[in-house]
Structures are given as C-alpha cells and as structure tokens.
C-alpha cells in the first residue's frame, strides 16, 4: 500500500508539472498596432536587448563572456527568453489620434485569473516622471470576462499595484484582482506625447505576469493560436 501511495503521489506531481508547462507553453503575447486610418504613429514589437536582464551575459573586454547581470527588479524571468527581449509600445503625437499600440495575451481564455503584472523600464518609483510612460490609463490591462459582461481595466498607476519592486532602472508591478474567468486579455497603450506626467508616449515592458506565469519574449515564428482561442478582438473593443 505504501508503494502504491508513493506511485500515486509521483503521478500527481508529474501531471501537475506537465500542466504547468502546458500553461507556460501556450501563454503567448502577440503585439499589434490598431491604426485604422494608417497614421503610422503607433508601434508595438518585441525587440531583443531591451528587456529586463535576468542572468544576462556580459563582457568587460568585448571578446569573451566574463560574467552575468540581473536587474534586482527581475531576478526571475521568462525561461523561454534567450535574447533579453522587451516589449516596445509607442504612440507618437497626440492622444486624440484614434490609434493604439497593444499586445493580446493568448492562452488565457477560459482561465481564472487573479493576478496580473509586468516589469516596466522606469527608475526609482511610479511617482517619478522619468522613464517609460505610466499613468492611470496606460499602459493598461483590459480583461473581458468569459461569456460577456463589463471589462476590467487596470492602469499602470491606478489602482496602485500591490507589489512595486525597484531595481537598477526597472520596476516590477503586480496587481491582485477578484477572480475573473477570462474571455480576452490585452495590454493597451493609447496615450501620446501630450499626456503627462512624462509626456513621452513610449513604454518598454517585460515579463508580463498572468497568475505568476511570465511572458518575456515574443511568439516563435509560426506559433499557432492555442485551441479555443479566437482571432484578435481589438476591432470589437475599439
């Protein structure tokens, strides 16, 4: 009986680990530009070299790797990220322009979400205007509940994050939310250079957090949408 119980425990552990890996494998962040008038004043893209460094290789003489560096704000990161990718979201010009730079998070549909967050390239604290744009309205999570109902929006500075961990130029922000079964989940950046406190119109994010699972790199080329996910819905949102 002891052996049978032990084997059952091992099986549960393996299945649980498999489920966790399945969740991280299917959670993907697809950047897109909403720009129906073709103003070409918004951009959304994952780029290598601009993410929050987690065990990044460094060289002191340009010839060999001589050490590693992690920003204290992101000592943990997406294990799939091999190129220190970061998410660039830009809106040039006025906020009134009907356009946005955004990212749709696929793989969360049907899941119960209680935590969201991201790392943001910004020194010191949310109260400082330096660094990435961060206001009550952008960048913001927009969460549409499964089966319909009012969307939930979580701005960069409103409501206040329950976690604000600072590093050497980055902040890790996390929000706990009432449990929501998700239909769609996205991050929207729709404030331009005329919006304070920074009047910058640009943000760099990394390690998008959904229920403590991190997405810190763009989808692999040719990645298929997870089963049950729908094509992008931003045309309906706007």
Describe the structure.
- This protein is mainly beta and 238 residues long.
- It has one domain.
- It contains two helices and 13 strands, in the order αβββββββββββββα.
- Strands 1, 2, 5, 6, 7, 8, 9, 10, 11, 12 and 13 form an eleven-stranded antiparallel sheet that branches. A two-stranded antiparallel sheet has the order 3-4.
- The chain is globular, with a radius of gyration of 19 Å.
- The protein starts with a helix and ends with a helix.
- Residues 1-21 and 222-238 have low confidence and may be disordered.
Summarize the structure.
This protein has 238 residues and is mainly β.
Please render the helix and strand layout as text.
Elements (H helix, E strand, L loop, with lengths): L1 H25 L1 E7 L7 E7 L7 E3 L8 E3 L15 E7 L8 E7 L5 E10 L18 E6 L6 E3 L8 E4 L3 E20 L12 E9 L2 E3 L18 H4 L1
Antiparallel strand pairs: 1-6, 2-5, 3-4, 5-12, 6-11, 7-11, 7-12, 8-9, 8-11, 10-11, 12-13
């Amino acid at each position: 009986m002891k052996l049978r119980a032990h084997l059952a425990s091992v099986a549960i552990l393996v299945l649980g680990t498999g489920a966790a890996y399945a969740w991280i494998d299917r959670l993907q962040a697809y950047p897109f530009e909403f720009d129906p008038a073709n103003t070409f004043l918004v951009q959304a893209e994952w780029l290598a070299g601009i993410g929050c460094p987690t065990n990044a290789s460094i060289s002191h003489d340009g010839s060999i790797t001589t050490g590693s560096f992690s920003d204290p704000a992101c000592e943990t990161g997406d294990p799939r990220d091999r190129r220190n990718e970061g998410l660039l979201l830009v809106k040039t010009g006025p906020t009134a322009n009907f356009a946005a730079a955004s990212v749709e998070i696929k793989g969360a549909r049907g899941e119960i979400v209680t935590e969201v967050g991201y790392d943001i390239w910004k020194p010191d604290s949310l109260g400082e205007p330096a660094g990435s744009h961060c206001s009550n309205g952008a960048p913001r999570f927009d969460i549409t509940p499964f089966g319909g109902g009012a969307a939930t929006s979580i701005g960069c500075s409103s409501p206040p994050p329950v976690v604000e961990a600072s590093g050497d130029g980055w902040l890790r922000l996390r929000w706990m939310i009432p449990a929501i079964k998700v239909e769609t989940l996205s991050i929207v950046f729709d404030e331009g250079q005329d919006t304070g406190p920074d009047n910058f119109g640009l943000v760099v994010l990394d390690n998008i957090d959904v229920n403590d699972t991190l997405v810190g790199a763009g989808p692999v080329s040719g990645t298929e949408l997870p089963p049950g996910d729908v094509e992008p819905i931003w045309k309906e949102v706007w």
